[in-house]
């Protein structure tokens, strides 16, 4: 993939330089036609100034190299949506499983390890005796429509089985299993590898139970591991196409995803010139002293042969790398490390002198590191202009150029045949938009108007939900709280089994009919729940009888006297018992959390029900959060295409007053307020007051208290600024679908200039709009809204009126209140829609009683709008609301 163009010869460059020099010296005598014969007589320059069509490029998920003859902006064409539905939900993801698969002739356990998706896998160890070798493994039982076509995928790792490991679709009978269709083999020592099985209805005609069978062979101690596994429904045409596809194409088209997954937050990151950043973004190792003279020029002092400066844990993206550097006459060496895992001891280390070297890495290498020092001597060293590039050829030094194209949006399509995809495109104003054909709705009380109980057959109940959105159609999917897909039944009325649904269209648009098993909801056979109790279920609560007859909470509430109603978090179920009970009054109206439960244990995954349907009429929606400005640099450029990026999310670091250390994204008790919204795969950038601040933080990978795979740590208080505003860009750990990105790039210099002129015009138009909007806001500032105070609280006086208002994307509180109940859990007031946070917010305030007595207390704000005293015992003489602010859910 290359951008073609001719290098300008030195002669014409010199002639043009002479003309322009003369022009500057004698501006009044300049005749622009003096350039014309020079340009007309030089084919190369003339070609650069022709009007040529832009070159179309399509980048597929993963990594590609682009060679460019000149700097050129990357102009987006479009990104097409796609949806995959894992028929087994999240059952194949060990980050969410509470127990291993059933294992035979061996032992199974869930362990934390390096896997392509998530952080955990199932380890299976054979327990057969030495004189009785044979097969061992694990099984997963399937309940699928046998008239469909499917593709099954899994990641497997053969640790120590002498014979190949594989997984199969099998029929399970009383006397054992019988293989129907098997994946490719996996030999020992190749790491976690992708395998797949294509399945047609002819393979599903077995009369007995169907299973996935994960199989190894050996004697006691032989081991293999299951990373993740999934099952996708596909069309017959796709099934037939798989037979002619290369293995890598199948792996790209059918990656592992959880539940229903769309193309989510797509991005392209372009790294040009040099894969090594400046020394400001490298690190000193084991106490090395580094004096940075300029971005790529340092003096290095060592008093130990294990002291270095460099960058480690870089993901492998190429098979071959070239390393060059200038030692400036010193005896410094470069050490190129190959690792199988993040932070692992190198399995191979290459020592490189000033001549540079080409390194062909091993198939087992997952990460590389480049460090400078000398393992044979200590003292003073110099390093200048280090270069790391893909390929075998040395390149002239060039600093790293990184740019990005990224969008926070979801792009869907029909989950089986891919029809009617959402499309992201650039508008005429230079801004990104989505032609949205699919609506994505979470079934939370804030998204529907009312609910009605329709029918109560044995074992489940049917309800109708009226959505606020009325543009539903019957092209639809509904995902349960555990990630499994509900059955879409368009025929039965009423519905005939639990976990089924139908959706209205036309005059019945907005209506959803669905069934819920009593074992999930906790409602007894004869009990008819109220609207508030139905809403509580959709917030994550199960009802049960707290009179003492049901200590495990796995039973149902079937009383007629209305007494002893209790609720427990659905996600607290450990397989035998629900742990934790609702402590508030009445029926729960917020999601379960540590403040409204006796004990909050997260034993299984839970998420709101998700409805995705083809809209009756597509709409064009603006992308609210994005980054533009990707460009190619002259020379080699590495383009990374992926998904799941989160752009500049605001975060509040936790600063310890005891040791002065600061942490971001920690799950350690007391530090949870520093967590970001999604589990983290990789942090890409930390911004302090909008400026990149990566160098101040340590990136701690696979830390036991990281929310995901990484957390950030700052040692000591020297760099900590409590007044700074911190934002984070990162990629999500939970799997998302990536999509090809189509683009155009100018074919020559004239095209590049035209693209830049277009871009400047777009920026000027957008800037004028922003300036006009700001002027309008300055003339009409938002008004303060007085809340309806509850629990006995009232205004402190005419100069301290309580209020809230929206300022850009923030909601701010003001004022002081007095006289109410000041204990933890007390409701203060409720915010209307449009003034609520995207997730639970907790901020510290203080209360007072007279001039001398004060007490700290925290105030919590829920996504459903409740504002209440979250933690602490306060005083009711005065409660301060000033200073509380949070982003809105707009």
Give the helices and strands, then pairings.
Elements: H1 10-25, H2 35-40, H3 43-48, E1 55-59, E2 62-68, E3 72-73, E4 75-80, E5 83-85, E6 102-104, E7 106-112, E8 120-126, E9 134-142, E10 149-158, E11 166-173, E12 176-182, E13 193-199, E14 209-218, E15 223-234, H4 236-242, H5 247-253, E16 260-264, E17 267-272, E18 283-285, E19 289-294, E20 297-302, E21 308-315, E22 320-326, E23 333-339, E24 348-352, E25 357-360, E26 367-373, E27 379-390, E28 401-407, E29 410-411, E30 423-426, E31 432-442, E32 448-455, E33 460-467, E34 476-479, E35 487-488, E36 500-503, E37 511-517, H6 518-521, H7 531-538, E38 541-545, E39 565-569, E40 610-622, E41 626-627, E42 631-632, E43 635-642, E44 645-651, E45 654-655, E46 662-664, E47 680-688, E48 691-692, E49 698-701, E50 710-714, E51 726-732, E52 741-745, H8 749-779, E53 794-795, E54 803-807, E55 810-814, E56 816-818, E57 827-830, E58 841-849, E59 853-861, E60 866-871, E61 878-880, E62 885-887
